[in-house]
Design a protein that fits this description.
Blueprint: H1 3-8, H2 15-19, H3 26-30, H4 69-75, E1 85-92, E2 99-100, E3 108-111, H5 114-125, E4 130-135, H6 155-166, E5 171-176, H7 198-215, E6 219-222, H8 229-239, E7 246-253, H9 260-266, H10 294-306, E8 310-314, H11 320-329, E9 334-338, H12 340-351, H13 357-371, E10 375-378, H14 381-388
Parallel strand pairs: 1-3, 1-4, 1-10, 4-5, 5-6, 6-7, 7-8, 8-9, 9-10
Antiparallel strand pairs: 2-3
Helix pairs in contact: 6-7, 7-8, 10-11
The structure holds ligand PBG.
The site of ligand PBG has 11 residues, from helix 9.
Cofactor: Mg(2+)
Protein name: Delta-aminolevulinic acid dehydratase
Organism: Volvox reticuliferus
């Protein structure tokens, strides 16, 4: 509406608009005090003092599409379902009780046996039918070369068997990396000079993946970030006849501060070195630099060429740009790991009453889907599924 049209309606353009020769802004005009009714002609249904304006001449009003819950639900772009979730489970066998993890309230190391079955049965009752197994290895079984990783009767392998025997249609994922079994606390074998050996480590990762497949795993997930491990594991699985076992690769796994509570859960943090044996205090020579984006494309191309079935980004919320990047770079399904530190932050704020936990968690899950993730690994798997089912 221009000044002439406004005059035709018996209204004066505001002086600011005239002076600057702008298209008339009748909102600016309306908020001049003279137009605001302080008494008398207040309209019904709005607070006294509400300005009286002529409607804006807007061709597009996005708020029309947000008008009702029915309509919002009808046009929602990203939907979260328990079918998207992969539930991590920590397993131990130091006694028959579940052991709470201090930095992850509500999450336990589950006692091998009935407690594991009960937990997974509960998850399935809410529609979560995918789990990833993390064993807590007793210290006396840890060695610098982590042979326990491919012990056919190791805790991880027995847990996989237990789960597949109890729930044949459960999708069981595993973690492929040496850190839960390595006395140095690294994902690979550490040389005396403090180098994480790449190709030597891969030999053991292949044995680990094959032993997990023999135990019945559906998907093996290398989280170690050694170069070339996806291709080597694919060849090892195929050679042993496991052509149907999938690989979910931790494609873009960053050297993140958010894994702290997980390392508490498994007591798997890098250990202090000694005079004759330098142990790097962090995983920066194999996990990615949080500053890097393009590098994720390089990892994605390698994983795709090496035969990965699913690509993962980890951590989750601080790396949504990388989730979107992989979604647009590759046709493979994309997974995202909502990691232990992200869980801990939400729990801590919720415990203090600083966040509405349900709303904040479901918003995080929706954001993963919006960014392009198909699969979400989350310790909130059961709780979020309860909320999605309408439970309080
Ligand atoms: C082991 C592994 C880690 C996580 C998953 N697999 C820890 C690490 O890389 O140090 C972290 C998961 C989490 O923080 O929830 N390679």
């Amino acid at each position: 509406m221009n000044a002439t049209q406004l005059r035709g309606l018996g209204r004066a353009p505001c002086t600011g608009c005239l002076r600057r020769r702008l298209v008339i802004c009748n909102v600016a005009e309306a908020i001049r005090p003279a137009v605001v009714s302080k008494n008398g002609n207040a309209r019904a249904g709005v607070p006294e003092g509400t300005p009286i304006v002529t409607p804006q001449d807007l061709p597009s009003r996005p708020r029309r599409n947000r008008r009702s819950e029915t309509f919002r639900s009808a046009i929602r772009e990203s939907i979260v379902s328990p079918a998207n979730f992969i539930l991590p489970i920590f397993v131990h066998e130091e006694g028959s009780n579940n052991i709470p993890i201090a930095s992850m309230p509500g999450i336990y190391r589950l006692a091998f046996g009935k407690n594991v079955i009960d937990y997974v049965a509960e998850a399935r009752s809410y529609g979560v039918n995918q789990v990833v197994v993390f064993p807590k290895t007793p210290d006396h079984l840890k060695t610098p070369t982590a042979e326990e990783a491919f012990n056919p009767n190791g805790l991880s392998q027995r847990t996989i068997r237990l789960l597949k025997d109890s729930f044949p249609d459960l999708e069981v994922y595993t973690d492929v990396a040496l850190d839960p079994y390595n006395s140095d606390g690294h994902d690979g074998i550490v040389s005396d000079a403090g180098v994480i050996l790449n190709d030597e480590t891969i030999e053991y990762l292949c044995r680990q993946a094959v032993s997990q497949a023999e135990a019945g795993a559906d998907v093996v997930s290398p989280s170690d970030m050694m170069d070339g491990r996806v291709g080597a594991i694919r060849r090892a699985l195929d050679r042993e006849g496991f052509t149907n076992v999938s690989i979910m690769s931790y494609t873009a796994k960053y050297a993140s501060a958010y894994y702290g509570p997980f390392r508490d859960a498994l007591a798997s943090a890098p250990k202090p070195g000694q005079a004759h044996r330098r142990i790097p205090p962090n995983k920066k020579t194999y996990q990615m630099d949080p500053a890097n984006y393009r590098e994720a494309v390089r990892e994605a191309k390698a994983d795709e060429a090496e035969g990965a079935d699913i690509m993962m980004v980890k951590p989750g919320m601080p790396y949504l740009d990388v989730v979107r990047l992989l979604r647009e770079t590759s046709p493979l399904p994309v997974a995202v790991y909502h990691v232990s530190g992200e869980y801990a932050m939400l729990k801590a704020a919720a415990e203090r009453g600083w966040l509405n936990e349900k709303d904040a968690v479901l918003e995080a899950m929706t954001s993963f889907r919006r960014a392009g993730a198909d699969l979400i690994l989350t310790y909130y798997g059961i709780e979020a599924s309860k909320w999605l089912a309408g439970e309080k």
